[in-house]
Amino acid sequence: MDILLTLIGVDDQYMKIPKLESDLNNLYEPIERYEKSLGDYSDKTTPSFLNQLDSHPAAKREAIAGVSALALLAIQASNGTKS
């Protein structure tokens, strides 16, 4: 069966006219509205904190500002103890 499909099946799946990168559904990037997969176990998944940050942009900005401030304080503290 593999030999038969190799001989006649694969060539029939190719298009005679190639698609450009700007054409719709060209599979160079995810198709709009289909970039996330959903399956039978979607209700059993546990969202990570990154999902919460994606759905709350203000909290994301505050978290980035907080981490940046802590990093700046850590750098200042390490520079102060060396001298």
Can you lay out the helices and strands and say which pair or pack?
Elements: H1 2-13, H2 49-55, H3 57-82
Broad structural category: mainly alpha
Describe the global form.
elongated
The topology string of helices and strands comes to HHH
Main beta-sheet annotation: none
Low-confidence stretches: none
Give the CA-CA distance, first to last residue. 77 Å
SS strand fraction: under 5%
| Helicity level | 40-55%
Cα-atom Rg, whole angstroms?
25 Å
Total of DSSP H or I helical runs spanning 4+ residues:
3
Mean pLDDT: 78
Compute the number of strand runs. 0
Can you walk through the features of this model?
The longest helix is centred in the C-terminal third of the chain and has 26 residues, at 57-82. 54% of the residues lie in helices and 0% in strands. The protein is mostly helical. It has helices at residues 2-13, 49-55, 57-82.
